[in-house]
Amino acid sequence: MQKFLTNLRRFFAAIGHFLAPILHFIAPYWLSFWHVVRRFWRRFLMTRWLILVLMLIFLGVSTYLTFLAKTSDVEHLKANLQTSTTIYDYRQQKAGSLYAQKGTYVSYNKISPQIQNAVTSTEDRTFWTNPGFSIKGYARAAVSYVIHHGQISGGGSTLTQQLAKNALLTQQQTFVRKAEELFLAIEINKVYSKKDIITMYLNNAYFGNGVWGVQDAAEKYFGKSAAEIDSAEAASMTAMLRSPSFYNPIDHPKYNISRRNLILDLMVDNNKLTTSQANAAKQEALNLQDNYNSTNGYRYPYYFDAVINEVISRYGLSEEDILNKGYKIYTSLNQTYQQKMTASFANSMIFPSNAADGTKVEGASVAMDPQTGGVAAIVGGRNTEPVFRGYNRATQIKRQPGSTMKPLAVYTPALENGYHYDSQLTDKKLSYGSNHYTPTDYGNNYQGKVPMYSALAQSLNAPAVWLLDQIGVQKGVQSVKDFGITLPKSDQNLAMALGGLNVGVSPYQMAGAYATFANQGKRPESHFITKIVDASGNVIVDNTETKSKRVMSAKIAKEMTSMMLGVFDYGTGTSAKPTGYDVAGKTGSTEVPDSYGFGTKDQWIVGYTPDVVVATWIGFDSTDSSHFLQGISEEGVAKVWRSEMANILPTTAETKFGTKDAKTRASAEQTTNSSDVWSQVKDGATKAKENLDSATSKAKNWIDSVKGLFGGN
């Protein structure tokens, strides 16, 4: 150690020795510069100017923040917190409410005083007397800011400020947000009484497990109303305000009890409990009882999330307005479909096994009405308790569609350009272009020539690419665009025939595209919302008139359906076909690198009847050598899709297709043609025999005439 210190001193001495001549050289210049700056500063009174500028900046910022506070609709905050936006299904029946950060609202006199005492003792001791903010609190926050090296770590906020943050602001920890919070708290304190403020705060607070508000929290954890909560239970509930997950009594009872006891001591310090009362409360066990029922609330999280996203992106309303202004939002939701689809996703037996590290195979699905384009049901993942406005794979993923792209990019434009459902396609291993793109069929088996309907049903790659090359890539690009999917330049090549896209698609997009086939060639505009009515009864959005675009003729749509019926009758989708129903559509999958082993990255089935289209995807969120799907789509997504359709189809109108599968049609036409030839042969023979008999009869008559002539002489 001594040697190290000696070396350290020598190091700094060497640096000092090196810098000494440099400092000696610049010292006179530095002193001259400093004298000039000092004279300038004194002569022009720069200190006063600096103070004036800072005061003007402070005044400007204060004026701006005051303006924001005055225009933040604080006067309607209480009413907004009590009002829920209601979601209605396609039958105009109530499906649920967009509670988001709202629970069952209860008045001040229906909240136990013990809850109020526990919260004020812990979160804001001066609540009943402060002006909405606390100087001491800001001082503590400033010290914390220094301790945490310039990071805002929270703290210092009164209950009024927390209400402003939860109800009117984001959760970001920034200086701007903290400043807005302060001015909003002052405004809230002017408009409302302290009883109103603590009531709004407790009804708007988050208590974990998807529960907002003190009433629902009391039912969730203790099976009673908020008015019946005692001091020990109040302290347990207050503990969750610090960290709803860490101090959750269901998941972490020991942590909850530890903080509960600390809060009871704080209540003693704040003269809300006596020491003996606190000690008695500490001895109480956690008697948890869950009586909370969210049936009438955020019932279908993935669907409701998608509704909110559509309101924001398509109609320009803010999330705050959607949740707080008491709208009535009418949608295409079919609650029966939704419940059936959710039940399928809850059945882990139909999904592939988890990865070795326990990671689940994810999935997403969309059911759509092909006549209107309205989304009837949606599941965005296998999480049974999705996060509010969390990741919705049904609308947000961008994954390679595999062979489900073939009907859109290849076979539809081919029919439009003179090919027929039974046209013979080349099925050979060929290379294309300067990069020698070489598609291969599964197992490297090729038939030389194959009818189009068979190439589609068997999902053969070589004929699909050959056909796209024949009609031209740009015709395929335009066709895909007509189906509602715009491809970037990087994807405008022969590989798109097999769904080898860089950007990818979502189940929502694929359901909208395939609805075109079920809707006789017209692509309906995909949507969730049909109408929005504000709290005053004014219709602010009317989407009840279905909009659609003609993509192909009804005849070609029927031909495509005929070919895609074969996918489930004798093609790659036979294992996915629900018993007793005719369905049309396409399977698809994307391969993983050979080094991973035999398997796929994405598996798809997009299928339909005249009544419903269902697009389903499964795969891992992140694919690598340890996270990929074993086998092919027949062994994975087929079970999921079949389960969905088996559950949904019995509840539909069960409308029949107006065509048979292409293979059956082709066989019937061949039989008819053969029968026609044989009939022609028989007709020819009959006519020949009749002609021969006629000629024989005429010859006999002539001979008899000749004999009569000679006999008469």
Descriptive key words:
713 residues, alpha+beta, Penicillin binding protein transpeptidase fold, Beta-lactamase, six-stranded antiparallel β-sheet, five-stranded mixed β-sheet, 24 helices, 15 strands, 49% helix, globular, cell shape, transmembrane helix, cell membrane, serine-type D-Ala-D-Ala carboxypeptidase activity
In summary, what is this structure?
It comes from Loigolactobacillus coryniformis subsp. torquens DSM 20004 = KCTC 3535. This protein is of the alpha+beta class and 713 residues long.
Helix-strand blueprint:
Elements: H1 2-43, H2 46-70, H3 77-82, E1 85-88, E2 94-98, H4 113-123, H5 135-147, H6 159-168, H7 175-191, H8 194-204, H9 214-222, H10 231-242, H11 253-269, H12 275-282, H13 301-315, H14 319-324, E3 328-331, H15 335-346, E4 362-368, E5 375-379, H16 393-396, H17 406-416, E6 424-427, E7 448-451, H18 452-457, H19 461-471, H20 473-482, H21 507-518, E8 522-524, E9 529-533, E10 539-542, E11 548-550, H22 554-569, E12 584-591, E13 599-608, E14 613-619, E15 629-630, H23 637-648, H24 662-712
Parallel strand pairs: 1-3
Antiparallel strand pairs: 1-2, 3-9, 4-5, 4-14, 6-7, 8-11, 9-10, 12-13, 13-14, 13-15
Helix pairs in contact: 2-7, 4-10, 4-11, 6-7, 6-8, 10-11, 11-12, 15-23, 17-19, 17-20, 17-22
Number of strands: 15
Q: Roughly what is the average pLDDT, rounded to an integer?
A: 84
Low-pLDDT runs: 144-155, 170-174, 674-679, 701-713
Sheet/helix structural class: alpha+beta
In CATH, the architecture of one domain is: 3-Layer(aba) Sandwich
Largest sheet: 6 strands, antiparallel
What is the CATH class name of one domain? Alpha Beta
> What is the strand content?
5-15%
CATH superfamily of one domain: DD-peptidase/beta-lactamase superfamily
Q: CATH topology of one domain, what is it called? A: Beta-lactamase
Q: What is the terminal separation in angstroms?
A: 162 Å
Anisotropy-based shape: globular
Number of helices: 24
- Radius of gyration equals 38 Å
Helix content: 40-55%
